[in-house]
Amino acid sequence: MATLETTYLVPERRDNEISQSSKTRFSVMSIVSRLERQLELRRSRMALLEMSDDQLKDIALSRADAYREAHRRFWD
Fold first, then answer.
1. Amino acid 27: pLDDT
2. Phi then psi for 54, rounded to 5 degrees?
3. What residues make up the domain containing 43?
4. DSSP one-letter code for 2
5. C-alpha–C-alpha distance, residues 71 and 76, integer Å
6. How many of the other CB atoms lie within 10 Å of CB of 41?
């Protein structure tokens, strides 16, 4: 019994052939994503300062803990 062999020509794709614009787009997007995360973290930390002592007590934080958290560096 004979078999039929089909060959498909698929162009090879090499990872090093990604265009420079694609690389730039990915790096810009990662920078933007990281910046958005840092801004959200900053807003969350600042919200701690606006909480009352009772609210802080509910989440097991003291006023000093809230102050310390709110004034952390962005890279922490």
1. 85
2. -65, -40
3. 27-70
4. -
5. 10
6. 13
Q: Is residue 43 part of a domain?
A: yes
Give the length of the chain.
76
Are residues 62 and 56 in contact, defined by beta-carbon separation less than 8 angstroms? yes
Classified as helix, coil or strand, 13 is: coil
- Count CB neighbours of 51 within 10 A: 15
Model confidence pLDDT, tens digit, residues 11-58: 666 655 555 566 677 788 889 999 999 999 999 999 999 999 999 999
In a domain, 76, yes or no: no
pLDDT value, residue 29 = 84
35: in domain: yes
How many structural domains is the chain composed of? 1
